[in-house]
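Two proteins, back to back. First:
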Amino acid sequence: MRFWKMHGLGNDYVVIDDRRERIDDEDLGTLARSLCRRRFSVGADGLLIVRNSKTADVRMRIFNSDGSEAEMCGNGIRCLAKYCYDKRIVRRRAMSIETQAGNREVELETDRKNMTYVRVNMGKPSFRREAVPMVGQGECVDEPVSAGERELRITCLSMGNPHCVTFVEDVESYPVHEFGPRLERHAYFPEGTNVEFVSIQSPEEIRVRTWERGVGETSACGTGA
């Protein structure tokens, strides 16, 4: 089995071309758990699978390191776009990629030989609870939630995948590994959620730490940003 190891801002993946569908669908989660184990295998935040698509240039399936499948991933789709361009699967600067959250359009910037940047149209965020999904009606904007012995204020939205955002005073020292899992698996979120812990650095800059659903803390998250 041939693979590439790629990363976007440290958010890393194992990428496999499976357009011939040699890997059974029911084995993809198990394969992700096996390949993503750090120190004991290749090691990664997730597994990206390239498949043929009937509605786009290619189809992306993404599996978290725990074997669960994600709907969409901003850094993952950037890696997959570069992979498809460099491997000459799609040799255009604009391509459409099918995801579990729908088709996403990407634009590639290149120099004379290499692809240098990928811009992704990830669509508009939806704050509707049913879109996240999240229990209740309407929107969840700056609402209190109990997480163990602490009350946090959260804003929840969907970028095709679920996100829960909470602003904190000092994100560097914040116990992300304690409250990330509590929010990820909170009863509010029947399918779990990604969690962003954010502190404001200046009127032009914020600092984010991401607790990714099915993975844990990651170096970056495209949809989370």
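And the second protein:
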Amino acid sequence: MFVSEEDIFHPPEESSAAKDKPKGVEVRGVAYLDGRIYILLSQSIQVLEEVVQYWKRAKEIKSRSFERPQDIVACTSRKVLYVLDQSRIWKVDTNGNVSVYVQLSQVSATLSVTKNHLLVISSEIIIIYTPGFFRPSVSQFRLPVGLAGTKPWHAVETDDGYVIAHTDAARFHRVSKLKKSQHDKSSVEVFAYGAYGTEVGEGEGQLSSPVYLALEPKHGHIFVADHDNGRIVVLNHNLTTRVMITDVPEGCYPTRLCYVDKRNELLVGMSNGSVIGYKFKRWSVIV
């Protein structure tokens, strides 16, 4: 299943969050919680509320404790936000109160969240935090040996494994679906989109710096922020069928994605500080 480009509604300029945000500041993260959009910038979190067909800035959350923040995600079941920086994960409630969730032992790239887990993506490993009564429990999911040395940027958990976007300079730009082997419980790559070596580029089947993913949970679609190509690639759950969303404003590069299931909308954070929404009117079935 996938959505065709004809089924994508591109909102007017007023519905972009860009008009209420400083230009030239890269979006570090985008999250949606209880009718609000939270946009992580270098020194603050901008909070937007919807007002008759467009989004308006409602407030700003600042914390001097953030150390080069990297990402933000929302946990709808717990009604909290999590912010990743260089040394900690912070918990932010809807009133803007900030507290330490967990201390990190290594620098990590991004976050993602499921109903039961918080995933922290770092070199060669996904660290999985499961909320507990006093403190979260910790487990790990390691990349296959064959992918050692690549640089994972982001990962999302699906019903049957993990999808990871990774890159390594000019020779490896790939999105992989990983599962645990039934034989020895090691991880194996079962599907992939992208290329090795000199095949990195802008054509079909190619990616250039895939830096972020978003999951459409009902059908298992994967959105890929294909940064250097200035587009979003839509893949099915087997990472095969693809649609290119290419009408990204000139000079903008997608850095963060957030799919809002209840709105059928993909929020895209850009390198210039803007956030654009793509609304999907219907999903088509591909046999």
